[in-house]
Design a protein that fits this description.
Number of helices: 2
Strand order of the largest sheet: 2-3-1-6
Number of strands: 6
Shape: globular
Structural class: alpha+beta
Helix content: 10-25%
Radius of gyration: 14 Å
Order of helices and strands: EHEEHEEE
CATH topology: Alpha-Beta Plaits
Number of domains: 1
């Protein structure tokens, strides 16, 4: 199951995101979304866990939990919608 993690501190990177979720089960991937131009975190990311049960447990335990002064927003990721690309100027 893929999990959306929002309201992350901008200092968090992939390895630290994986550490947050690993106590709840096997983490397949953990990716913090980074802005291309500034190489800075956008404040959210995605975690994929091997087991749906582990993912649901992680969501219930971590949603709203404070991490480095910020309340995490954790829920099941929704499929990405196809939307037209913005032209670059």
């Amino acid at each position: 199951m893929k999990i959306y993690v929002g309201n992350l501190p901008y200092s968090v990177r992939d390895a630290e995101l994986e550490e947050i979720f690993s106590p709840y089960g096997e983490v397949i991937s953990a990716n913090v979304i980074i802005e291309r131009e500034t190489n800075r975190s956008k404040g959210f990311g995605f975690v994929e866990m091997a087991s749906n049960e582990d993912a649901l447990e992680a969501i219930s335990q971590l949603n709203g939990k404070e991490f480095n002064g910020r309340g995490l927003k954790v829920n099941e990721a929704k499929p990405r919608e196809d939307r037209p690309r913005k032209p670059r100027y």
